[in-house]
């Protein structure tokens, strides 16, 4: 299937599973590789992002993700989703719509080059740690997000992300408000999880 990578979100919104989603991911990544990204140019662009996402990409703002250390491809995908309105946000959609393809690549390269945020203070409850680790294993989070859960290609970095951001993302995936990209559907992954499970996962991952 031949798809213009910058048209991918429109198709992705229609089908997120199996070979179609995988083909779209491959098409976008191939397009990204065609032009060399400029992390220095991305740094200049990111000055306008610091008010919400923090200096050096580490967020101090509630419900706003840290971007430092996120995989290059993940940042690019999310900006393309926002730009096409496949992912909804009154704030991010107009910002992304103002970005050119090279600028999106530059931002992805810049944020990927930054050291990730430090983990949030860990829970004192050993049972919570064990429950979080069990849920990660049972729901095969490492299959997409990497063995260390630091993200891989278009899959987000989970460890050291803000707890409130992780919890909102999990709830949005479960409710269908937000759609995931790739072979695995996050709606399927979260389907059997209770809200208590989501809270445990968000707490556990933020402290790793």
Key words describing this protein structure:
12 helices; 55% helix; Cytochrome Bc1 Complex, Chain D, domain 2; 208 residues; single chain; globular; 2 domains; mainly alpha
What would you say about this model in short?
This protein is an all-alpha fold and 208 residues long. The chain contains twelve helices and no strands. Helix 5 (72-84) packs antiparallel against helix 7 and helix 8 (126-138) packs across helix 12.
What would you say this structure looks like, in words?
By secondary structure, this protein is an all-alpha fold. 55% of the residues lie in helices and 0% in strands. It has twelve helices and no strands. It has helices at residues 8-14, 18-33, 39-46, 50-53, 72-84, 92-97, 101-113, 126-138, 142-145, 163-175, 186-190, 195-206. The protein is globular and about 45 Å long. Mean pLDDT is 87; it is low at 1-5 and 13-26.
How are the SSEs placed, and which strands pair?
Elements: H1 8-14, H2 18-33, H3 39-46, H4 50-53, H5 72-84, H6 92-97, H7 101-113, H8 126-138, H9 142-145, H10 163-175, H11 186-190, H12 195-206
Helix pairs in contact: 3-7, 5-7, 8-12, 10-12
């Amino acid at each position: 299937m031949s798809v213009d990578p910058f048209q991918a979100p429109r198709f992705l919104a229609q089908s997120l599973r199996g070979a179609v989603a995988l083909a779209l991911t491959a098409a976008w990544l191939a397009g990204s590789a065609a032009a060399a990204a400029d992390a220095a140019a991305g740094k200049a662009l990111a000055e306008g992002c610091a008010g919400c996402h923090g200096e050096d990409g580490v967020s101090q703002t509630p419900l706003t993700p840290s971007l430092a250390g996120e995989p290059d491809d993940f940042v690019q995908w999310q900006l393309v989703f926002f730009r096409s309105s496949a992912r909804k946000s009154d704030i991010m959609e107009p910002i992304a719509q103002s970005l050119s393809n090279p600028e999106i690549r530059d931002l992805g390269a810049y944020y990927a080059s930054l050291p990730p945020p430090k983990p949030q203070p860990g829970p004192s409850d050993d049972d919570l740690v064990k429950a979080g680790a069990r849920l990660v294993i049972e729901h095969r989070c490492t299959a997409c997000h990497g063995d260390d859960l630091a993200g891989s290609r278009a899959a987000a970095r989970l460890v050291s992300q803000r707890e409130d951001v992780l919890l909102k993302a999990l709830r949005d995936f479960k409710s269908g408000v937000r759609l995931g990209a790739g072979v695995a559907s996050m709606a399927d992954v979260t389907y059997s999880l209770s809200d208590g499970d989501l809270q445990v996962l968000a707490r556990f991952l933020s402290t790793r």
